[in-house]
Write a structure and sequence with these properties.
- With 692 residues, the chain is an alpha+beta fold.
- The chain has 16 helices and 37 strands.
- Helix 8 runs parallel beside helix 9 and helix 11 runs parallel beside helix 12.
- The longest helix has 23 residues.
- It binds (2R,3S,4R,5S)-2-(hydroxymethyl)piperidine-3,4,5-triol (DGJ).
- The site of (2R,3S,4R,5S)-2-(hydroxymethyl)piperidine-3,4,5-triol has 11 residues, from loops.
């Protein structure tokens, strides 16, 4: 709805109100972003209701936050655009179409177009397109979004950790200061995912007003949340240019996505999930169930031989895997991680007849075949480096290595051509339907902007040439899984840690931004290769069932009983995967300190699958109370514990649950909940609830 002066977007419980013409030629101001203000709020009244603040040390005229705070004088927060030219900006045009608004701003030389689109899932997609006439006006920072949030926003939740411990949650109070989250690694890195949640005091999984934000950029990024002295909280996010870089003459910021929910983190997360599913992910994801993976990495590392790989494929097929992914180690000279990156031809010693015999075997078992690649990288010890030393990105004269590897100069067209040709050849000559696209180091030096655009461009070209090939984004685990990568990939390798206890936490938090069907998670070996912790098969399988499930262990080491149990879990995943991969994901907080839960409910509320894990032993001997969200309140549901169940867990189930005849209404399950007792730490229970 628009008037001459106001632009109002409204969708799925969220609204945005812009005062497009506060004064002749003045910059538009954002009067509201957040809760739905209804079909026809009185815009003039909302605008006129702002108090006149009579207080010391204030500008005489206090103005609401503009669409690009700081491009006019008199704004003392972090500017949304940082440039050396002090130009005066005016509004050239404001137009509205199909739930989106475009604002054109002009100065004597430059043009900016700001786009706001409020999607059907209640997510505000924003972007700025710009034309800069000369280098001095090209900004070093231009926010893709700048939004004032409610003044009652007091807390911030950001995610980031480390390699093998991605997506750790950190909370900050939003006091009288700015919180700045920046990644300078040319990718998000493991420590700074480009997304956050901000909300009212004490917001949690189910309570509080929460804003969720995510930047669709696969490089260095910046997010700023700041409380102005006057009380307004302003959020900004966009691409971070490296020190020596600034925006190109024709620049498009990445898209930035912001949502709002009055229903805590679960509400904001669910809006992001629906948006990602419907508007970001490639359509290919909808066309078939996500196949269960078998990945070779932790089973063989670099030691590839045909007989072993075929034996692993046999066992993988027998327990129910549907896609076999040959990880690192298959290409010429790759016997360790110190050599061969860049030489994308099959190793003739390990594979004298090429990949064909292995692929044939895998395909004969009914499995798809996938291949690991790391196209952007090069080892100094490689044929490619010896042939084209000038293709390597350097920092001045220095060659900084990480995992013994350097980054290719992706901006050079000949590098992209080389990579396209190499990958195109592999995909054309072999029956490969999947690539695991890895990136095992940070990007140093040079322009990070061009780097990201070049990588996207390469992936897009490859996808266009091979539309049936799916791609997984991996960067030593979850180092690059922003919404920009999600537009061009079907799966995220969330972490290298297959420690199910750590992974449960990592997945649960990654799911704040990533819907389960794209969040790759594997059943690893009983003793985790990274943490050394030994965990039971049920927990490992239960955790893997709530994502895009896979296996990553030497199946030859499992005895018949274990193989049988693993295959039962995979069978369960297959029968529930439609629900898990399309339903509504919930973070559940059971009572006490020792338990944690997640669940997925069907969109028609007739069914749900819930996982409770005993993560600790602080209150050993005490159970927990779990409440089950997402079900039809007045409907009676059958609640069943899904077999296989560990003996000690089964023994402590209430008699009705144990006998399989527990029937409760959605209301009782949601409000009274179930007392559960998992007697041992590191144990888990899977519950299926279905309307009867
Ligand atoms: C890092 C990835 O995260 C692992 O899964 C594996 O693919 C290795 N790279 C291979 O080098």
């Amino acid at each position: 709805m628009t008037t001459d002066r106001f632009q109002y977007l409204r969708n799925a419980g969220v609204s945005l109100l812009i005062d497009a013409r506060p004064d002749q030629e003045a910059i538009p101001r954002i009067l509201h972003f957040g809760a739905d203000l209804g079909p026809s709020p009185d815009f003039d009244m909302i605008e006129g209701a702002s108090p006149i603040v009579v207080w010391g040390a204030r500008m005489d005229k206090v103005r609401p936050v503009s669409v690009l705070p700081g491009i006019e004088a008199g704004y003392f927060g972090t500017p949304a655009m940082v440039t050396r030219s002090g130009q005066k900006w005016r509004t050239d045009n404001v137009s509205a179409k199909d739930n989106s608004v475009q604002i054109r701003l002009g100065s004597s030389d430059d043009r900016l177009t700001l786009t706001y689109r409020l999607t059907g899932q209640g997510v505000l997609a924003t972007r700025v397109s710009a034309e800069f006439s000369d280098p001095t006006s090209r900004p070093r920072w231009l926010a893709a979004t700048s939004l004032p949030l409610g003044t009652d926003v007091e807390e911030l939740l950001v995610v980031g950790g480390d390699w093998a411990r991605e997506f750790a949650i950190q909370r900050h109070a939003i006091g009288a200061h700015a919180v700045v989250i920046e990644s300078r690694r040319g990718r998000a890195g493991h420590d700074r995912f480009p997304g956050l949640f901000a909300g009212t005091k004490g917001f949690n999984d189910d309570h509080g007003e929460v804003y969720g934000l995510s930047v669709g950029w696969s490089g260095s990024h910046r997010m700023v949340v700041e409380r102005l002295r006057e009380g307004t909280v302003v959020i900004q996010a966009g691409e971070l240019f490296s020190e020596t870089d600034s925006a190109p003459a024709n620049y498009e910021t990445p898209w930035c996505y912001t949502t709002y929910s009055p229903l805590g983190l679960n509400g904001a997360m669910q809006a992001l999930h629906s948006f990602v599913r419907e508007e970001i992910l490639p359509r290919s994801i909808r066309s078939k169930p996500r196949p269960v993976h078998y990945n070779t990495w932790e089973a063989v590392y670099f030691k590839h031989d045909l007989a072993t790989l075929c034996a692993l494929a046999d066992r993988a097929a027998a327990v129910g895997a549907e896609r076999f992914v040959l990880d690192d180690g298959w290409f010429k000279g790759r016997s360790h991680d110190r050599a061969a990156l860049g030489d994308w031809i099959v190793d003739p010693t390990k594979y004298p007849d090429g990949l064909t015999p292995l692929i044939r075997h895998v395909r004969s078992l009914g499995l798809e075949f996938g291949l690991w690649v790391e196209p952007e990288m090069i080892n100094p010890d490689s044929e490619l480096a010896r042939l084209h030393p000038d293709w390597i990105r350097r920092d001045g004269d220095e060659l900084l290595l990480q995992r013994h590897q350097a980054v290719l100069d992706m901006e050079r067209p000949e590098v992209r051509t080389y990579l396209y040709d190499a990958l195109h050849k592999l995909l054309s000559e072999n029956d490969i339907s999947y690539l695991k696209w890895d990136m095992n180091r940070d990007v140093t030096g040079g322009s990070h902007h061009e780097y990201v655009r070049s990588v996207w461009n390469l992936i897009d070209r490859l996808r266009a040439g091979h539309p049936l090939v799916e791609i997984e984004t991996c960067a030593s685990g979850g180092g690059r899984c922003d919404y920009g990568m999600l537009e061009r990939t079907e799966r995220v390798w969330v972490s290298d840690s297959n420690d199910a206890l750590d992974r449960f936490d990592i997945q649960r938090n990654a799911n704040l931004f990533l819907p389960p069907e794209i969040a790759g998670v594997h059943v690893g070996p009983s003793t985790c290769h990274i943490t050394g912790r030994k965990l039971g098969l049920d927990l490992r399988a239960h955790v893997a069932m709530f994502g895009h499930m896979g296996l990553e262990l030497d199946l030859r080491q499992l005895d018949e009983r274990e193989l049988q149990r693993l295959s039962q879990h995979i069978q369960n995943h297959k029968s529930f995967r439609h629900l898990v991969h399309s339903g509504c994901y919930w973070r559940i907080e059971p009572t006490g300190t020792d338990h944690c839960g997640i669940g997925v409910s069907a969109s028609n509320k007739s069914e749900g699958l819930y996982l409770v894990v005993r993560t600790g032993s602080e209150q050993l001997g005490r159970g927990t109370l779990v409440k089950f969200p997402g079900l039809e309140m007045e409907q009676i549901h059958a609640v069943s514990a899904v077999a296989p169940i560990a003996g000690h867990v089964e023994q402590s189930l209430g008699p009705a649950l144990r006998m399989g005849n527990l029937r409760l209404s959605g209301r009782v399950l949601a409000h009274r909940g179930l007392e559960l007792n998992l007697p041992r730490p590191e144990s888990s229970l899977l519950l299926h609830v279905k309307a009867v």
